[in-house]
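TA notes, week 10

Several of you asked for a full example with nothing omitted. So below is the full record: structure tokens for the whole chain, then the designed sequence directly under it. When grading your own attempts, check the secondary structure regions first.
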């Protein structure tokens, strides 16, 4: 396949010289100190401080959620429709390894999307698949002559980021849409993406993610609620502080913007979270499109869930350890810094502190100290989930949250209080090699 003009890409880092293990240890040690220190004082000394932090957490969290007003979502009926000749050249990139269950359906759906043929290129990167994916792709290329297949050796390195970076050598469009192999889109999604991007001058857009196999079991149901909750916080953070994140699947980005940021970091296990932070530091905002969504499979077993969440947790921590100096001392405003610190504490520090606090309380036969903050965090999660599940959105119908379902969902969310401490401990003690530990897809319509 002919290579495009962007065959040379400068990456921000090609080594593990950032001392992630040391930074993980310092972070874990700090959490331990915060967990144990208040136990040396009487309750009347520390409890007002705990209550104050809980109030701050509640106030800001409610402020973020309140930004999700129905009438603030993008209204396509009042937006100008883009004529075919005005639509940009778009390249869709899908990094695929061992995706025999979904790749055929994906390609069929992509070629049925409503978009001018002469302006749409579809690239499937077969990243060293050992199943029937290469054979299936070969057959599909006979059916769809515009299908571009890029092949890499399995040991080429860099994981998903490496596959996407390699594909950048061949693309020619002005915009890129990154999809996972299990992605499902409505036929008019591409048209709506550019209506949204052009109307508000976004150079990056993330589609809301939704679970397509909601009714499979309790686990997929809870993941569907979690994605709804995530979209509420994402949208609220964007309009409160100008902070939002990519989610790997369904991310539209202008190619020049991506290249200026150094493309995809091959030294991280979550390319989307790493890129999100680099885009933020470069001054680029990520638009969040609520409707239509990109639909994907939720994992169906506990083991698959914990494997997936460990990767997410590790990638989430890696980006903060890598870019903490730019976050604290870089040229971003106070609102963004506060938002980033707020969600870093809730997502990564609080689970560790809460678990350590619980262990210390059991040993000392005392009640836990940080329960008001943890309770507040769960309360905010419940409010965001309830609001998100009761709004009118496109795609799969959101689960209905009864009181009993909410209790089950809270129990499900508690897995983060095990995953985050475990991953941080591993990152503090063990050397790290980047592997593409991909989620297995079964193929669900």
């Amino acid at each position: 396949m002919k290579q495009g003009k962007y065959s040379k890409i400068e990456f921000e880092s090609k080594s593990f010289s950032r001392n992630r293990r040391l930074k993980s240890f310092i972070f874990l040690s700090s959490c331990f100190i915060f967990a144990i220190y208040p136990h040396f004082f009487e309750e009347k000394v520390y409890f007002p401080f705990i209550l104050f932090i809980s109030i701050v957490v509640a106030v800001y969290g409610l402020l973020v959620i309140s930004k999700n007003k129905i009438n603030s979502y993008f209204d396509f009926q009042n937006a100008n429709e883009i004529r075919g000749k005005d639509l940009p050249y778009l390249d869709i990139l899908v990094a695929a390894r061992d995706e025999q269950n979904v790749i055929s359906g994906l390609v069929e759906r992509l070629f049925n999307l409503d978009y001018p043929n002469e302006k749409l290129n579809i690239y499937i990167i077969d990243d060293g698949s050992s199943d029937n994916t290469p054979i299936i792709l070969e057959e599909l290329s006979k059916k769809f002559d515009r299908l571009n297949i890029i092949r890499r050796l399995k040991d080429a390195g860099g994981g998903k980021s490496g596959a996407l970076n390699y594909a950048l050598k061949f693309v020619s469009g002005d915009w890129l849409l990154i999809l996972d192999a299990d992605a499902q889109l409505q036929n008019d999604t591409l048209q709506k993406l550019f209506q949204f991007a052009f109307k508000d001058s976004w150079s990056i857009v993330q589609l809301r993610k939704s679970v397509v196999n909601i009714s499979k079991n309790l686990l997929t149901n809870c993941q569907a609620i979690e994605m709804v909750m995530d979209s509420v916080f994402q949208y609220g953070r964007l309009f409160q502080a100008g902070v939002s994140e990519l989610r790997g699947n369904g991310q539209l980005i202008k190619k020049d913007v991506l290249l200026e940021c150094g493309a995809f970091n091959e030294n991280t296990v979550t390319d989307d979270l790493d890129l999100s932070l680099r885009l933020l530091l470069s001054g680029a905002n990520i638009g969040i499109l609520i409707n239509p969504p990109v639909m994907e499979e939720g994992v169906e077993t506990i083991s698959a869930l914990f494997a997936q969440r460990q990767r997410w947790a590790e990638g989430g921590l890696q980006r903060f350890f890598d870019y903490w100096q730019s976050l604290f001392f870089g040229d971003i405003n106070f609102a963004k810094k506060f938002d980033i610190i707020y969600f870093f504490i809730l997502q990564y520090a609080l689970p560790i502190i809460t678990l350590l606090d619980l262990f210390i309380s059991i040993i000392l036969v005392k009640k836990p100290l940080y329960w008001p903050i943890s309770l507040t965090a769960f309360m905010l999660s419940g409010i965001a989930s309830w609001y998100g599940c009761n709004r009118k959105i496109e795609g799969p119908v959101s689960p209905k949250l009864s009181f009993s379902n909410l209790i089950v969902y809270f129990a499900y969310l508690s897995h983060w209080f095990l995953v985050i401490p475990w991953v941080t401990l591993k990152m503090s003690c063990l050397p790290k090699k980047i592997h593409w530990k991909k989620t297995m897809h079964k193929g669900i319509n």
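The chain has a mean pLDDT of 90. Use that as a sanity check on your answer.
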